[in-house]
Amino acid sequence: MARQLDERMMVAGQINPSALPDYAAQGVTLVINNRPDHEDPDQPTSAEVESACAAAGLAYRHVPIARGMGPSDIDAMRDAIHAAGDGKVLAFCRSGNRSTLVWALARSADGAGREELERCATAAGFSLEPIAHLL
Question: What is the pTM (predicted TM-score) of this model?
């Protein structure tokens, strides 16, 4: 189940590709996969998710974050969010936490304030404490 961070951004744990038409019906136009392939043995691969996105009429980006987030991960997330234009974005990882953290860093790089980011993350059930020093 996806959690709303702001008016355009939702995050979720591992999604089932069969649910993508439902997300499209909710206005999602872009799916961002923050999981590296084979993180868990039963997860769909990036290629499988990309194929399901195409079938559902959704754009897709793979921004895998394995061990920590570097500047290139944040830049790739920013680029992906910007590519969505006015559309809604669904980012997913194992639990939604990693996607929330990289979203916050990307939005911070775009000038969003720390208090607003923390409010959004907290309302969705996440903590930005692990990256607070970077906001």
Answer: 0.96
